[in-house]
């Protein structure tokens, strides 16, 4: 909603005050967490919240005493591979639905759409047994293979591919480009914004997985960061709050940076994908 | 929090008219290419395989298991028909889980939408530096479930937590947020709403910005107050988006697991024992795979219904 009329000064000040109050509410939990991550646990335990003994000791401890870097590395690896695979496989299936003419295409497409109704959370029992039977428990693969593709990604890219001008395909046919060349040299570069958007979704989706990695990993060597943080909490019998908050900050700060830098893409992607 | 749509989620993007006509034209079968069939296998093969193994097969397997009794490793033993379902739907314990989940989902959706509207409404004002506020309001999108849990576990901690400290200063009675059955649900709701807020805000802001300014100009000339404009122009104009966000929030709410596991473990005394947490416990702690399968199928039906409603309504809206 764009305010058209020029606002009067008191109104303006009131708006800023309200915006600042809302910011404080939204950012409060962050700020409390960040502040306590700088305090000695002793001070936190005594309720000495306004202590001025701030230092980065908790961060040094977190890096030295916990496998937080290993967790982050695991998550980075899992999320990167998942993202790359989704970009490839979703774009390939989207390509088939847009540029290939074959019998049963409509049925298959409805089948893809139907998978969006089926929550993965309700399929963990057979999936756990499948992964176990494949011998993949406690490996990176267990957390990557089920998510190599996604119906949502296929659907989103299909929408994007459908918007391509017909002339491109016609020109490619005249040039004698085969499907692989057209897919790789024309379709993929042309739809790079949608691909970046899907990549961001795929990455964050994998990064935020919780239930599935919890079922399929039991060692720090493979545990992603969400479950790693849980592990640290359950091991911290003496409630070292300062260090726990530091681990949370270590995890959240890079995500926030990526989010703020990449916000343009998220917004355009969301509008493209869902809301107009 | 960013929902994870890329991993088998339920979002229904919109088909544009142009895209639609193009899709239908090529669907009509003219120049059906014989060679394309082989390409189709190559291009679709990998995705079909993965969806088949990890989405379709498990659904049928879950249905199958739910009609049997199972042993401790989840192998079906005796066919029992629908009795797993009958047992569930007549068990006070399960019905309470269902009720608890409903309360949680409804509360989270209503509060998230209301707060998201307030944030988006203020962030859409034309003020210098508004971009900074927009960015800050969306910040919780970058917070993952375990980070949110840590922040809020500290805030709710009964001895050293932030709220305990504040109520000490103000001489208010202490609340055992996470161990008192009356309060634990509220604590989980607050945390979920906070996590959802950034995403909801961004979507609603985008919708508000696409409302034609001429509507507001006309209203201003007529002397309509900002409040009147919010309720009589903005909200009706963005109602499709409000609907979309509500459904997404509802569906995500039904699938909630992480925060429950991190904050309350379904407790105290089952006060937050929601559907997915229950499935997990029944299957992987109690080894009752058959019952957990029946629970999974009930969850699937609930989510499928909401997803279908979403598809239908969005379809209608797009095709008018």
TrEMBL record, chain A:
User: Per the database record, which ranges form the ABC transmembrane type-1 domain?
Assistant: 72-262
**GO aspect biological process, one term:** transmembrane transport
Residue intervals passing through the bilayer: 13-35, 76-100, 107-125, 137-157, 193-212, 241-261
List cellular component terms (GO). Answer: plasma membrane
Q: Does the keyword Coiled coil apply?
A: no
Q: Which InterPro entries match?
A: MetI-like (IPR000515), MetI-like_sf (IPR035906)
The reply to whether Glycoprotein figures as a keyword in the UniProt entry is no
Q: Which domain of life is it from?
A: Bacteria
Q: Which UniProt keywords apply?
A: Cell membrane, Membrane, Transmembrane, Transmembrane helix, Transport
Where it sits in the cell: the answer is: Cell membrane
Family listed:
Belongs to the binding-protein-dependent transport system permease family.
Protein known as: Glycerol-3-phosphate ABC transporter, permease protein UgpE
What does UniProt list as this organism's lineage? Bacteria, Bacillati, Bacillota, Bacilli, Lactobacillales
TrEMBL record, chain B:
Pfam families xrefs = BPD_transp_1
The GO annotation for biological process reads: transmembrane transport
Q: Where is the composition biased (Polar residues)?
A: 1-14
Lineage: superkingdom: Bacteria
- Tell me the segments the record calls region Disordered: 1-20
* CDD domains documented for this protein: TM_PBP2
Q: Show the stretches that span the lipid bilayer.
A: 38-57, 64-86, 98-120, 132-155, 183-207, 228-251, 296-314
Q: How does it sit in the membrane?
A: Multi-pass membrane protein
InterPro entries on file: ABC_transporter_permease, MetI-like, MetI-like_sf
Q: What is this protein called?
A: ABC superfamily ATP binding cassette transporter, membrane protein
Q: Which organism is it from?
A: Lentilactobacillus farraginis DSM 18382 = JCM 14108
């Amino acid at each position: 909603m764009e305010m058209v009329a020029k606002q009067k000064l008191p109104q303006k000040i009131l708006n800023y005050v309200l915006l600042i109050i809302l910011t404080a509410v939204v950012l409060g939990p962050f700020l409390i967490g960040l502040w306590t991550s700088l305090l000695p646990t002793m001070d936190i335990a005594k309720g000495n919240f306004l202590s001025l003994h701030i230092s980065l000791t908790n961060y040094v401890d977190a890096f030295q005493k916990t496998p937080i870097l290993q967790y982050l590395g695991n998550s980075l690896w899992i999320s990167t591979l998942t993202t790359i695979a989704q970009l490839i496989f979703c774009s390939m299936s989207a390509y088939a639905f847009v540029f290939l003419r074959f019998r049963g295409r409509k049925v298959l497409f409805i089948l893809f759409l139907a998978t969006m109704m089926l929550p993965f959370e309700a399929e963990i029992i057979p999936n756990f047994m499948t992964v176990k039977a494949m011998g993949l428990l406690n490996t990176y693969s267990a957390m990557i293979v089920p998510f190599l593709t996604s119906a949502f990604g296929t659907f989103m890219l299909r929408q994007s591919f459908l918007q391509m001008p017909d002339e491109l395909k016609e020109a490619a046919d005249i040039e004698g480009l085969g499907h692989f060349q057209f897919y790789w040299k024309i379709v993929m570069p042309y739809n790079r914004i949608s691909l970046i958007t899907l990549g961001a979704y795929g990455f964050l989706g994998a990064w935020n997985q919780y239930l599935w990695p919890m079922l399929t990993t039991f060692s720090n060597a493979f545990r992603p960061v969400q479950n790693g943080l849980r592990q640290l909490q359950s091991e911290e019998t003496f409630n070292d709050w300062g260090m726990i908050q530091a681990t949370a900050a270590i995890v959240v700060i890079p995500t926030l940076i990526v989010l703020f830098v990449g916000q343009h893409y998220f917004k355009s992607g969301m509008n493209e994908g869902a809301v107009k | 929090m960013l929902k994870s749509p890329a991993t088998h989620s339920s979002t229904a993007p919109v088909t544009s008219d142009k895209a639609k006509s193009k899709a239908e034209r090529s669907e009509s079968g003219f120049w059906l290419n014989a060679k394309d069939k082989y390409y189709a296998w190559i291009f679709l093969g990998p995705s079909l395989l993965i969806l088949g193994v990890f989405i379709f097969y498990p659904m049928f397997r879950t249905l199958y298991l739910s009609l049997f009794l199972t042993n401790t490793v989840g192998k079906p033993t005796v066919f029992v028909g629908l009795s797993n379902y009958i047992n569930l739907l007549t068990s006070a314990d399960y019905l309470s889980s269902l009720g608890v989940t409903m309360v949680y989902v409804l509360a989270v959706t209503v509060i998230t939408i209301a707060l998201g509207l307030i944030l988006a409404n203020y962030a859409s004002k034309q003020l210098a530096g508004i971009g900074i506020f927009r960015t800050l309001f969306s910040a919780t999108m970058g917070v993952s479930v375990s980070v949110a849990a840590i922040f809020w576990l500290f805030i709710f901690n009964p001895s050293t937590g932030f709220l305990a400290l504040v109520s000490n200063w103000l001489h208010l009675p202490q609340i055992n947020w996470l161990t008192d059955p009356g309060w634990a649900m509220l604590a989980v709701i607050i945390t979920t709403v906070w996590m959802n807020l950034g995403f909801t805000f961004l979507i609603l802001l985008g919708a508000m910005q696409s409302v034609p300014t001429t509507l507001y100009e006309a209203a201003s000339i007529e002397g309509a107050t900002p409040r009147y404009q919010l309720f009589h122009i903005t909200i009706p104009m963005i109602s499709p988006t409000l609907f979309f966000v509500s459904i997404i929030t509802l569906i995500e709410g039904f699938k909630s697991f992480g925060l429950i596991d991190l904050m309350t473990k379904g407790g105290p005394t089952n006060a937050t024992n929601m559907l997915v947490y229950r499935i997990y416990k029944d299957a992987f702690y109690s080894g009752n795979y058959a019952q957990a399968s029946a629970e999974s199928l009930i969850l699937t039906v609930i989510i499928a219904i909401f997803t279908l409603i979403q598809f239908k309504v969005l379809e209608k809206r797009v095709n008018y």
